[in-house]
Write a structure and sequence with these properties.
Shape: elongated
Helix content: under 10%
Distance between the termini: 29 Å
Order of helices and strands: HEEEEEEEEEEEEEE
Structural class: mainly beta
Number of strands: 14
Mean pLDDT: 83
Strand content: 35-45%
Number of helices: 1
Radius of gyration: 19 Å
Length: 170
């Protein structure tokens, strides 16, 4: 990585990692490698049916990716009338180093319809100024301040931003 590819980045030191934030992207440095920061999310498309136990969920890299750390996703079965259906996916570890959106596979149902899901990679906001404070990543983009979740610098919820000023970028 060079300033030519990143513009004028802000270098930040977190607890056990470093971050480069520019107008183009956010990169994480783990002491050995830089990689683009992406946050994996999983959406339930079809709950399936006929599950007698919690199905295995497999996340597979695509596009020649070799992530630094693979994602771990678990399924949750419902209760009552939904006891044999997948009702949610829990991202235990979003993985690190994905460049392309991976695929997700849910193990087949023993006597019904297999559940399906869609994976997406969320890109964090970018900006000319950034700071690491109280285990959160703060990124200023024009007149908007974005704040990551605690200990999850790749995840910026929609409610985790605020607009400062009157829209003049100051």
């Amino acid at each position: 990585l060079t300033t030519a590819t990143l513009g004028l980045p802000t270098l930040l030191q977190a607890v056990d990692k470093g971050y480069l934030v520019s107008n183009e992207d956010v990169w994480e440095y783990d002491g050995t490698n830089f990689y683009k920061l992406r946050y994996l999310t999983v959406a339930l498309n079809n709950r399936g049916s006929g599950y007698s136990s919690v199905p295995a969920v497999t996340v597979t890299p695509t596009g020649g990716d070799s992530p630094v750390e693979g994602a771990v996703v678990e399924a949750t079965l419902g209760t009552g009338d939904d006891a044999d259906k997948v009702v949610a996916f829990n991202v235990i570890n979003p993985g690190r180093g994905y460049l392309h959106t991976p695929t997700v596979t849910v193990a087949a149902s023993s006597s019904g319809v297999t559940a399906t899901a869609t994976v997406s990679l969320r890109t964090p906001p970018t900006g000319a100024n950034a700071a690491w404070h109280t285990n959160r990543l703060f990124i200023a983009d024009g007149d908007t301040l974005h704040v990551s979740d605690f200990f999850t610098p790749g995840y910026f919820g929609a409610a985790n931003s605020l607009r400062v000023g009157g829209g003049d970028g100051q």
